[in-house]
Design brief:
- This protein is of the alpha+beta class.
- It folds into two domains: 66 residues, Orthogonal Bundle (434 Repressor (Amino-terminal Domain)), CATH 1.10.260; 103 residues, Jelly Rolls (Sandwich), CATH 2.60.120.10.
- Helices cover 24% and strands 34% of the residues.
- The strands form two sheets. It has a six-stranded antiparallel beta sheet with strand order 1-2-3-10-5-8, with no helix packed on it.
- It is elongated and about 75 Å long.
Length: 184
């Protein structure tokens, strides 16, 4: 069974400092059996006790959470992106390219490509959306307001509000949308 991040970090940091569990117990005032159970992921640890250990080891408290943070780093290469058709308007496809397809991700980035004269269907969902128009021009309706976006404009809104977009311009429009939480 895999140890939790704190248990793994505690063992790695303590061993790296050249301390035995008994020596750490002496420096912290915590019992040897307790420290052993924590390090073997058999007991929970309070923030107060974790701070005692961090002080004894001479490291910031956040150090014990670094392994967990490291494990959330994701790299998505072009071959892992997924492209789908959002809508077909006048024979032209509006596409969405998912840049990150990990359902454990906390956000969902995608590139939307809209040929001239295309639009999306209205939708709403939980969370928030961030839009950055990379090229072209679009009109973006959120709730009862419509915004005219040009290159490098950014729009951020609660996604519970009904929203849809259209490219009434003469050129293709491309924009980044980042939704949170991940919903597909």
């Amino acid at each position: 069974m895999k140890k939790n991040g704190i248990a793994q970090s505690l063992h790695r940091i303590r061993a790296g400092a050249g301390l035995s569990l008994q020596e750490l117990a002496g420096k912290t005032g915590l019992s040897l059996p307790y420290l052993s159970r924590v390090e073997n992921d058999k007991a929970n640890i309070s923030v107060v006790n974790l701070r005692l250990i961090a002080n004894a080891l001479g490291v910031p408290l956040a150090t014990f959470f670094m392994d967990e943070a490291q494990s959330t780093i994701k790299l998505s290469s072009k071959s892992q992106h997924r492209k789908l058709v959002l809508n077909v308007c006048n024979g032209r496809k509006v596409t969405e390219e998912w840049l990150l397809t990990d359902p454990e991700a906390k956000l969902e980035p995608a590139i939307i490509t809209m040929p001239s004269g295309t639009y999306s269907n209205p939708l709403s969902h939980e969370g928030f959306e961030f839009i950055w128009l990379i090229s072209g021009e679009i009109s973006y309706a959120v709730g009862s307001e419509t915004y005219q976006l040009v290159r490098d404009d950014v729009l951020y809104y609660p996604a519970l509000l009904s929203h849809h977009f259209a490219n009434d311009g003469k050129k293709k429009a491309v924009f980044l949308v980042v939704a949170t939480p991940w919903s597909y």
